[in-house]
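Entry 14: structure prediction run for DUF4349 domain-containing protein. Input pasted below.
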Amino acid sequence: MNYRTLSTLLVFSLLILASCSSNQRSYEPTVEMDVDSTDTASAQELKLNTKTPEGRKFIRTADVRFEVKNVMSATEQIEDIATNYGGFITYSNLENSQENSESTKISRDSILVTRQVVVQNSMVLRVPNERLDSLVRQFNKLITYLDYRIIKMDDVTLQFVANRMKSQRLNTYNNRQAAHIDNRGKKLGESSNAEDRMLDRQLQSDEVSVHTMSLKDQVNYCTINLTIYQEAIVIKSIQPNFNYVAASKPNILSRIGDALIQGWWILEEIIVFLVKIWGVLLVMGAIAFLVIYLKRKYRK
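Run finished. Output tokens:
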């Protein structure tokens, strides 16, 4: 009896463990699916939140300034990028600006002019509204140092509504004035005044139409104000010293002073040259020491 009872209990325990493990395995994928579904829902929600609200109109502008390796090469690449994204360039000003300049007298009739020049280009790009973000990201491969990148969105939906309502009022007024002029065409004074007022309202209507067209253009095409520059370039050039009078022979003291200055410069160049080849001098000194040491050793 004890044996049968133990066997029954053992079989019953194994069945319970098997059922628990199967329930646990069936539960784990459900948890993973819930996590995945939660992540997907969060990503979709984030994607929806970053969209421009439907039914609204925005004027988007960008102000970007950064350093590049070479301004000329970067300008050509930016022109190609703008064309590939359906945009165009309305302004480009490539120029050199001199930051520092220093003149050093090297002789009585010559001076050394050292200039620090910065090359930069200021550009204005117009690109389709829906391609602004993609185009701005293309600048990343050109940037060596970013000064700033500002993107603004101005909601002009109410301006469109105001222009439409104002245009409707002006059209209604013009139609009524035209009918009024036709009915009282025999009275010249009243007709002239009414036509002047109607002409004034027509001019206002034209201004509203032009303003609406300008808003549509700014909404459809974004404006990018871009400034690129490169690291300052140092330019050295020897120029004549116009303050020196060639006809007058300098006195001996001035000539001795110039000779001392030039001699000092030569000495500086010699010292710099010796410092540059210190490794060669060290090897030559070691060889000379070794030769002298061996000679003395053999003599002994």
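Notes: Strands lie at 58-67, 88-107, 110-128, 145-155, 221-229, 233-240. Will compare against the previous run tomorrow.
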